[in-house]
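Review form for a predicted model. The reviewer records the input and the model, then writes brief findings.
Reviewer: anonymous (R2)
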Amino acid sequence: MWIGERPIPSSFMSRLAGTVPFIFRIKEVRIGTNMKNLRKYGKAPFNIAVIHGGPGAPGEMAPVARELSSVRSVLEPLQTAATLEEQIGELKDILQKNGDLPVTLIGWSWGAWLSFIFAAQFPAFVEKLILVGSGPYEEKYALNIMEDRLSRLSKEEKAEALSLLKTLSNPVIKDKNTAMARLGELISKADSYNPLPYKSEIIECQYNIYQSVWEKASKLRRSGKLIELGKKIQCPVVAIQGDYDPHPSEGVKGPLSRILKDFRFILLENCGHQPWIERSLKDRFYNILKSELKT
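Model under review:
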């Protein structure tokens, strides 16, 4: 899940995303306050990590981790920290203790931004950066994201989404995780071009984490500091974006091509925000990822 757009004024908020060989092994994860912050697929060494979206939606990169574990061992960090700075520190700690540094980070949606920021702060940790379905890196490209999403929903779904957005912006309502989860379902439908049947693997929607982390991240973009971080990134960067993704590709390709030293952009036609659930693009997406992991 992710939002990746402007913070909600008073009525809008953003997005809340084969055979496994014998080496596949998944570490148990507990839900809620006791949730662990890492799942492992395969055996050491681990030099690939997939970074989920949200913020506050851990677990949704599990299908990608499982697929890639057919060729390489994979770490799936689960961000449990409540602030942007703490999530960066949490990721650093996980990679330091479990990764074979430097690693390739595959960040999806919000996870693309988190990986981008992390690679800027800790360049020695990252060998390659793969950004999938990233949000735009400059504010001007984020103005119509939610409006575009709502326009893809039915009249009834749009009304429900607007009601959920009001719930999430209401300070009187304390428990907003259920509303966030349902809004995520509606947005996921709007974000998909021609999806295969799939079941969300989000462990738990955590609105408090979303609100705290996104507030700081959105300020970084508004100030121009987010894209400026790209000057500190030393590794190759590849961005993969679907042309049906409401996060506009020009908001990723344009800013990153200007700021990064080693950058490539791959546009997938007839593809939404989650390429691995798209009926006609799933296999091509995985082939691209596996090819990128060889270089």
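Findings: Strands lie at 38-41, 48-51, 74-77, 103-108, 126-132, 237-242, 263-268.
Further findings: The longest strand covers residues 126-132.
Recommendation: see findings above.
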